[in-house]
TrEMBL record:
SUPFAM superfamilies: Ferritin-like. CDD domains: Ferritin_like. It comes from Allonocardiopsis opalescens. Pfam families: DUF4439. This is Uncharacterized protein DUF4439. Residues 145-165 are annotated as: Disordered. Coiled coil: none annotated.
Length: 165
C-alpha cells in the first residue's frame, strides 16, 4: 500500500505540483469516459474507447514522471463531478468535449514547467486533448487552446501597421 501524497512535495517542486494536477485531470477524464459509455453507440462509442485508452496511457506516463521526480502519484478519487449530465448521445458528446478541455487546461499549466521532457510531454498532450475536444464538439479551434474564453479580455490589441504609400 502506498502512502498518501505529501502536500509539501508539491510546494517544494512546482513541476511536481503541475504533474499532480495533470494526473488528477486524467483520473477525472477516465472516470468521465466510463460514465459516457452507456450513452454512446457505433462510431461514437468506438471513439470513446480509443479516448479512454489514450487517457489511461497519459495517466500512466504522468505517474512515471511523478515517481521519477521522487513524488507519490495521487490516486484516483472514487468519483468525479462531471461537467454535465450525459443523458443521451448528444449530451455525452458535449461532456466528452468538456472533459478534453479540462485535460487541455491542466496540460497547458504543465507546459510552463522549465523541464524540457515535461514540456514536450505536456505539449503533445495539449495537442491531443485539443484535437479530441474538437472531434467531440465540432467547434472551431480556440485561439489559445486550454485557456478560458475570457483569458485575454481587456488585453490591448495590437494596432495595425500604417498602410504604405
Amino acid at each position: 500500500m502506498s502512502r498518501s501524497p505529501d502536500p509539501a512535495e508539491s510546494t517544494a517542486d512546482p513541476a511536481l505540483a503541475a504533474l499532480q494536477t495533470a494526473l488528477r485531470a486524467e483520473h477525472a477524464a477516465i472516470f468521465g469516459y466510463g460514465r459516457l459509455g452507456p450513452e454512446l453507440s457505433g462510431g461514437r462509442r468506438q471513439r470513446a474507447v480509443r479516448d479512454i485508452e489514450a487517457h489511461r496511457a497519459r495517466r500512466d506516463g504522468l505517474r512515471r514522471m511523478v515517481l521519477d521526480r521522487g513524488g507519490v502519484p495521487e490516486r484516483a478519487a472514487p468519483a468525479y463531478e462531471l461537467p454535465g449530465e450525459p443523458d443521451g448521445a448528444e449530451a455525452a458528446a458535449r461532456v466528452a468535449a468538456q472533459l478534453e478541455w479540462a485535460t487541455a487546461r491542466a496540460q497547458l499549466a504543465l507546459a510552463a514547467v522549465p523541464d524540457p521532457e515535461v514540456r514536450a510531454a505536456a505539449g503533445a498532450a495539449l495537442q491531443d486533448s485539443t484535437l479530441r475536444a474538437l472531434s467531440w464538439s465540432e467547434a472551431e479551434v480556440p485561439a489559445w487552446p486550454g485557456y478560458p474564453d475570457d483569458a485575454f479580455a481587456g488585453a490591448p490589441s495590437p494596432s495595425p501597421a500604417p498602410a504604405a504609400d
